[in-house]
Structure formats: structure tokens, C-alpha cells
Amino acid sequence: MKSLSRTVKDRIFVWSIVIPAILFFIIFVYYPFAKNVYYMFCDYNYIKAPVFSGLKNIQQFITDSTAHRALFNTFAITIFSVPLVLVVSLGAALAVFSMKRGKNFIRSALFATFLVPPVVASVIFKLMFGTESGLINTVLNTLGLPSVGWLISPGWALAAIIIVHVWNGTGYYMVIFLAGLSNINRQLYEAARVDGANGVQVFRYITVPQLKPTIIFSMIYATITYLRSFALVEILTEGGPYRSTETIIMYMFKQGFQSRNVGYASVIAVVVFLITLVISLIQMKLTKYYDD
């Protein structure tokens, strides 16, 4: 009886932990996603009841050049931001890892960039990127270089977003790479030195292969993060000039809350979800491959 009573108590304890987690996912993940899928096939504007409209919203997305451009902008920001932030972060991690003194201070200082919320970072950089009185153009002028229209030229506005992404994310990925570097067997480096390998060879044949799981994780996580760029871009460029930096999430927000076209916004949300899902599956496959 005591054994049975203990088994029942253990089961109650386990379910008391599991049930809240299940309810959380049902309420905040599965139910909203199911509603999105439902609204995809409806005309809905928050006021009137949803009316079934078939594939109209999906057809609209297929032919909507503005949505396609927003998707292109999102991919452009992601494709440039991800490799840059990873290269800068890995370089910073290698530099910090090899330091003899001041390692903790430098690591904390670099990580502090990640602690700055994207909204705050975008406000600060918007002031710095100002054409007339911005700090960056002031420095350029002092060096005898012409001012740059950071936020009024499509190409430079895209570059400004990428710069802020890299600045804001470097600290986070640096810490991840530092953790990966600390897990590499020191004997591999000692053996390489005995064999006469130089620094470039050690980095190429030991550091990079040993960091592959960390690099893959960071690459996928950064990709998903930048695909969902919204607040930083909204404040920094507001999607301009001429919608040249408008991301797909910004366009979804405008359709769903400004135009109140909930059905069409739901289509965009599902498209973004599917893209993210594919990237996550790729991560799982690559992680499993390198673990094996």
C-alpha cells in the first residue's frame, strides 16, 4: 500500500509539472496557430464575424509584389547580417579567449551590447546615423570624407540595419563561441604545435571543425532572429526609404493592425512560420549529422 501510495504521489507530482506546460503550449502556441490557419481562408477585420473566402488571401499573397519585396528585404538583411555577426563574434571570442589579462572585463563590455534592447539600440543609432548632425557623419567629415545618407538612401539604410544587428548581437554570439572554445581539448592544440602547425592551420583544422556544432547553432538561431526583424527596423528606418527596408513582419503588422486585413496577415504569418520551420529542421539534421 505504501508503495502504491508513493507511485500515485509520484504520478501526481509529474502531472502537476507537465499539465501547466501542456496548457501553456495549447493556449499560447497551438491555439493561436490554429486560429491563424482558420483566418487564412476568411475575410475578417475585427469588427464583423469571419466570412469564408476560400483561397483568396493565398492568391493575393502570390500576386502581391509589395509582400514579395518585403520578403526579399528580409532575406537580404538576414543573408548579410548572419555571416557578419558570426565572423565578428568569433573573432571577438578568439581575441578574448587568448587574452592573459582583462579577459573578464572585455568579455563583459562586449556582452553589454546584447543587453541593450533592440528598441533602445535603434533609437541611439538613429541619432548617430543622422545626415546633418549625426555622430558618424561628423566623424567622416572630420576625416575629410563626405557625409553618407544612412537613412535616406535605400542601400545605406539597409547597411545601417545590418550594422545595428551586428553591434547588438556580437556580445551574445561571442559568449556562445567562448563556451565552445573552452570545450575544445587543449591536447589537440599541443599536438598541432609539436607537428609545427602555424596559427592559420590550427584555426582551420582544429578550431573550426571543433566549433562546427556551435557555428551551426549560432547560424540557425541568428537566421531565425533576423527573419523576424521588426522593432529595430521599424524605429530605425520605418521601412523606408520607399519601402526598401520594409521586412515581411512589418508588412504583416501593417496588414493585420493598420489595414485590419486579418485574413491576409494570417497568410503572411503562416508563410513566416513555414520558413522558420524549414530552417529549424535543417538545424536538427545538421546537428544530428555532426553529433554522429
UniProtKB/TrEMBL annotation:
The UniProt record lists the keyword Membrane: yes
GO term, biological process aspect, one: transmembrane transport
Pfam families per record: BPD_transp_1
Record bears the keyword Transmembrane: yes
Keyword terms, alphabetized: Cell membrane, Membrane, Transmembrane, Transmembrane helix, Transport
ABC transmembrane type-1 domain residues: 71-283
Chief location category: membrane
Highest taxon, organism lineage: Bacteria
Subcellular location: Cell membrane
Transmembrane domains' residue ranges: 12-31, 75-97, 109-128, 148-167, 262-282
Membrane topology value: Multi-pass membrane protein
One GO term describing the cellular component: plasma membrane
Family membership noted in the UniProt record: Belongs to the binding-protein-dependent transport system permease family.
Record-given protein name: Sugar ABC transporter permease
Species of provenance: Hungatella hathewayi
